[in-house]
Every structure is written in C-alpha cells, then in structure tokens.
Amino acid sequence: MAAEHRKPVEPDAAPSVAHHGAHHAATAAPTATPPEAPKDTTPDRARPSGGGGDDYEPDPNRWKALVICLLGGGIVLLDVSIVNVALESISSGLPGASPEAVQWILSGYALAFGLLLVPGGRLGDASGRRRMFIVGVALFTLASALCGFAPNGLVLVIARLVQGFAGGLLTPQVTALIQQLFRGKERGTAFGLFGATVGIATAIGPLVGGLLITAFGTENGWRFVFFVNLPVGLVTILLSFRYLPATAKAERGRKHDFDPVGIVLLGAAVVALLLPFVQSEEWKSNAKWWLVVAAVVFALLFVLWERRYARTKEPVIDLGLFRRRSFSLGVGLATVYFAGFTPLFFVLTLALQSGLHYSALLAGASSVPFAIGSGVASTIGGRVVSRFGRQLIVFGTILVLLGLGGVIWVVANHYGPSLGWWLVVPLLVAGVGSGLTISPNQTLTLSEVPVQQGGSAGGLIQVGARVGSAIGIAAVGSVFYSALASSKGDYAQGLPLGLGVSLAFVGAALLAGIVDVVVGRVRGTQASV
Questions:
Q1: What is the pLDDT of residue 255?
Q2: Distance (Å, rounded) from C-alpha 291 to C-alpha 269?
Q3: Distance (Å, whole) CA 59 – CA 180
Q4: What 3-state DSSP class applies to 231?
Q5: Contacts 24+ apart (CB under 8 A), 149-156
Q6: Which of the four pLDDT bands, split at 50, 70 and 90, describes residue 527?
Q7: Is 439:381 a contact under the CB 8 Å cutoff?
Q8: What was the pLDDT predicted at 53?
Q9: In this predicted structure, what is the pLDDT of residue 20?
Q10: How far apart are CA 195 and CA 277, in angstroms?
Q11: With CB atoms counted within 10 Å of each terminal CB, which end of the chain scores lower, N or C?
C-alpha cells in the first residue's frame, strides 16, 4: 500500500477497482497522438473533464460554473444555521408549532439531508451532474416556497424534510463538479472557495436570519428566512443551463448500476445512526440508543453486500477508496472536526438570545468575525494546500483549539452584556483555523479519487460531516443543558462546559492530522494534491 502512495497520483489516472479494470484499461491506455491527428471538435462544455488525465482540456467556463455551484451549495448550507435564530419567531407566529414540531424543523432537515448524500452523489455520477444539480436546486427552491407559505407546523416540518432531501441531492454535485472541472493548484483554489462558502454560510446564517426577522417582524419574519432562497434558486437554475458542463456524448450511452439494495442498506444505517442524536433532547428514553446498534448492523450488511455486488456490477460505493489513506483519514477527520465545529454556533446563539436577551440580529452578528476569518483563510488555504499538504490542516486545527479555548475563557470571565465584543478576537482566530482545515481537507481527501466516482466520494465526506455535526450537537447540548439544570440557568457555567466537549472533538481532529503527517514522513507517502 505504501508504494501506491509513494508518488501522488492524478485522480483521473488513479487505479480503479478490479471489476472496472478492463474498462479503464480500454479507455485510458497511454497512446501517443500523432501530430497529424485531427483535432477533437467536441465542444468544451460537452467534453468529459475528468476522463483520463492526458486528454484533459480546461473548460473555458469553469470559473463561472464554480460560482453557480457555490450559489447552489451556499443556500443549502445557509439553511443549516439560518433557522436557529428563527425558532422563537416560528414558535410564536405559526399555529401548531409545538416544541416537538420545532425540534423536527431542525432535525428533519438534518436527517433527510444525510440520507440522500451518497445516493445523490451516485445519481450524479450515473445520470449527469448538471441534471442532478438543477433538479436539486429546483426542488430546494420549491420546498423553500412551501416553507414560507406553510399554514401550520405540520406543513412546515414536511417542507423542511423535502428541503433536506433536495440539499442531499444537490451538495454532492458541487464537489463532483469541482473535481471534474479543475486540476492541480486550480482544484485547490476551487475547493478553497467552496470551503469559504461552507464557513461563511454556516457562520453568517444567524446574522441573515436576524436581519430578516428584524426587517419583517417577529410574527412573520421567519417566513422570509425561507423566501430569501427563491431568487437565488431561480437565478442559479437559469445560469446552470448556460455554464455547467453537460454530460459528454461518450458518457450518455453508458449504463450504470444503481445498486438499490446497497442504497437502502446505507440509508438505513445513516438514519439509524443520526436519529438518536438529532432527537436526543426530545426522545428521553435510553431505548433510542439501540438504534446505534441497528446502524452498526446495517453498516456491516452494507459492506458485505457491496463486496458481493462488486464482483459482477458497479456498487454504490467503491470500498477500495478506503484503502487510500488520504481518503479514509480525510473522511474521519471531517467527521470529528464537524462534531467540534458545528455545536459552537448552536450553544453560543442560544446563550446570547436566551441568557443575555440579545436580539436575533445581535446574536447573529456575533458570528461575523468567524465568518470573515473562515472566508479569507479558506481561499488562502486552497491555494497553498499543494505546498504544505496535511501540515496545513494541523496548523488550522491548532488555531481552532486556541480560538475555542479563548471563547471558553471569555465566557467564564466576561459573561455579560458586552460578551459579543469580547468574543470578536477568539472567534476570528477560530474562523481562520477553520478555513485552513475544511477546504484543504476536502482537497486532500479527494486528491486520489477518480473523477468518475467524485459524486459518491464527495457524498461520503458530507455524510461524515453531517454525522459528526449531529453527534457533536447532541454531546455538547447534553452537557450544556445538564449544566444549566444543575446551576439553575447559569449560562456562564453551562456554556464553557459544553464547549469543552467541542474542544475534545477538535483535539481528536488535530491528533488525526498529526498521525497522518508522521506516518507520511516515515513512509515517504505524504498526502498532496
């Protein structure tokens, strides 16, 4: 295995699994093109951008296509956090918005999102990424309209489920299209911009939500939290037809196996694993943890099925990807990092609004330093990851640890009306660290993945991030709420204890990065783009 990593492989030329060996041998055999050979007249937008390394020609529209991908992916990620500050408005302004319905407005989105990530990536790989991207954006836009016009809590919960499904279908296409359209340092830059979008959308969501609720009032302001997606979605769909690359003619006639049994088993494993965590506060019985055991059983059945299915057909996930250290470690690192990163805004926004009675706008504004740091650092990180490799991620996670530690110290020592100002520096440091972690890890994790499997592989990274987010919010929230109960509502005590759990998860991500750097140096197989 060490020999496989000794020299970084262009993802398009990376060896595929055995059952596809004959296909790749036929399509990627190194043949010299004589000078007099006729020039390929296939339009750039129809050319397979990830075919075989040597035949790659840059799509002239690739940067415009990237902007469109980031618009679509951005609104999906924005809706992960923008609803947090709108929950109080929803509870007071929507009939039937019971505490259980409000919980499902959050958790239903997360469940549906995680469920469709890998199948969505597979559909894009098999049926065309542009097609699935447009379908995903269209479905998300329609679901957003239904959310905004929801007459009661039940309709809003259903609409949020549809939103989550659409997000799970759309998101893998973003990473797969970046993988398809870019190579080398350009790919690092593109993933850097995507990482900036992830960090900014997640952190800026509460601010955007606060602005909309302030502008349109508490009773109906929450509806505009969803309506804001409509113009963005419509513009994205129109531009997608113009600038996103269509499926190449050579690929249109190729048939793919959809592996329905594998998709069902994987979906059951994801839901069984996510459900007890996203419902940890509402579902008090310990019986819910049996679902984790069921998730392990479904996962084992999935692995056994995929190995059997791969002997003759094309599985939904090429398990051989996990033999590559860059991929397996990157997915694991993303999982534990998001378990530490995501709960920060969940408990911080809650403490500012419920504990210090900040308005939705002021609570959202507290996340701006993190968003600025993350956006700038992600762009830089994407450009220099090819030079520093996994060491850049180690440096980034150290900064996140320092920033989180600073947040804990500030809350413990300066909890009061001026807390938002005290948080500026530690959140800025944490944001810079996050920007140097998320996008470089995405780039390195997919660095050796064949472009043909980009959707499924990108979906797996997102599944890891969503599972990590659910586990992190449940773990941090459990400690946070327990501390509040025992201290009779003392947020100055509960918040540092909850964020201490976040600190432990980010520490695990740092350890994973250090192990990869050390092992890479010993074996001479350091991860690179």
A1: 56
A2: 9
A3: 10
A4: helix
A5: 149/223, 150/94, 151/95, 152/94, 152/95, 152/96, 152/97, 153/94, 153/95, 153/96, 153/97, 153/98, 153/101, 153/102, 153/105, 154/96, 154/101, 156/90, 156/94, 156/97, 156/101, 156/105
A6: low
A7: yes
A8: 44
A9: 44
A10: 26
A11: N
